[in-house]
User: What shape does this take?
Amino acid sequence: MRFRDRREAGQLLAKQLGFIKGREGVIVLGIPRGGVVVAHEVAQAIGAPLDVYITRKIGAPYNPELAIGAVASDGGMVLDRDLIQQLGVPEDYVEKETERQRQEIERRTREYRGDRPPLQLAGKTVVVVDDGVATGATTMATLRALKEQEPKELVLAVPVGPPDTIRELGKEADRVICLSTPRLFWAVGAFYAVFDQTSDAEVKQLLGTAP
Assistant: This one.
């Protein structure tokens, strides 16, 4: 399955989330940057407020696209210790890169929200949306951090992801909606005709925080 762009992916996801349309206490959380575009379509379709949850990948040395872990907004971490050992990644690199990503989370939080406080998630149905998952490290960190806020139900909704990753994420969420789980998986962008960079300005516009 291939999507035209993130907006189409969000519209198709929304159709699978019809079971919560009109339900009280639903919040949609987009994972910046591209996930916010998908999440905006979902939130519009099911009539729920949209917020952002920022989780950053900890990339491997010389290959930043390869996730060896992730850090969430609340400081929680997920590390792939087997991969770190396999690649021989020094501990001080992990510490420095983790701190760099924490600083980026703080910057983006200020950029996207300004003075607006985050939505309260306790007792709510929380739908986490991204434009796709690959290793699942950032998504895993997101779900584990969000569970600490005690939502009533935690739903993960993504257009595409490899079956093993989706299966593992299903252990962290109450429900997973994934439109396509191809066994041959290269990168999320391979499943989109248009997969351009989403700017900070577009994220702010979609969140309603643009000046």
In short: Residues 91-113 form the longest helix (23 residues). The two ends are 37 Å apart (CA to CA). The beta strands are 26-30, 50-52, 55-60, 63-72, 77-79, 125-129, 153-160, 175-180.
